Amino acid sequence: AWQAAEKQHETGIPFVGLVVSQQVLGDPDKATISAGVTTRAQTAVAAMQQNAVEMDRVLKRMDSLGIPEDRVQTAGITLNPQYNHRQNLPPEFIGYEATNRGTVDLRNLERIGPVLDALVAAGANNLSGPNWEIVNDEPQKAQARKAAFAKAQAQAEEYARMAGYSGVRLLAVEEQMGFQQPMYDRAPQAIVVTGSRISTPTRPGQVGTQVTMTVKYELTR
């Protein structure tokens, strides 16, 4: 507000500046999961070797599931000493913990539960996700952009009327990077039953694509 008032004082032109956001919902068509292996052993070398064997089994299972290699990426490898913290006693060293995690990009959302189950069966014991996204959200961005601009125009005209002016003239528009975020769940996906086993159920909900813009209007008579 101070900067706007100072600018008006310098130029003698009254204007209004606004920051507006608009969000549009869409159905996700991509899910990212993290799957990895955590192992423990008395020595660092043993922990890493055991982890390598088990993570290799998980990666080969991904290949057998038909997941393309370019949609699997190593997300982090850690090796840390582990201690047993006892009250009023020095920490007791109990070995090393090694973790290797990979992110997996899945485009067939109906396969998420079965894929997670298959990876756990192959030895994955460190899972997180899924994170839902829209691969191409340009249509949602265009819709949100149009709605945000109309909203800004209406608000600027309302300010003009309150200030005793007849209208506004656009001076500048600056758009911030749009982003996606998961929204509420819709009806749950059907749970897949294989024999006596039930695969892990998932609900994709919807993803909100948001566009934020900063606009400046001159107030006109």
Overview of this structure, please?
This protein is α+β, with helices and mostly antiparallel strands. 30% of the residues lie in helices and 41% in strands. The strands form 3 sheets. Strands 1, 6, 7 and 10 form a 4-stranded antiparallel sheet that branches. Strand 8 (193-194) and strand 9 form a beta hairpin.
Please summarize what this structure is.
By secondary structure, the protein is α+β, with helices and mostly antiparallel strands. 30% of the residues lie in helices and 41% in strands.
Q: How much strand content do the residues show?
A: 35-45%
Number of strand elements: 10
The secondary-structure class comes to alpha+beta
Average pLDDT score: 88
Shape: elongated
**Gap between N and C termini, in Å?**
22 Å
Largest sheet, in brief, is:
4 strands, antiparallel
- Helicity range: 25-40%
How many helices?
A: 4
Low-confidence stretches: 1-7, 185-196
Oligomer: single chain
Map the helices and strands.
Elements: H1 2-11, E1 15-26, E2 30-41, H2 44-64, E3 72-84, E4 92-106, H3 112-121, E5 126-133, H4 138-162, E6 167-175, E7 179-182, E8 193-194, E9 197-198, E10 207-220
Antiparallel strand pairs: 1-10, 2-4, 2-5, 3-4, 6-10, 7-10, 8-9
List keywords for this structure.
single chain; 221 residues; alpha+beta; 41% strand; elongated; disordered N terminus
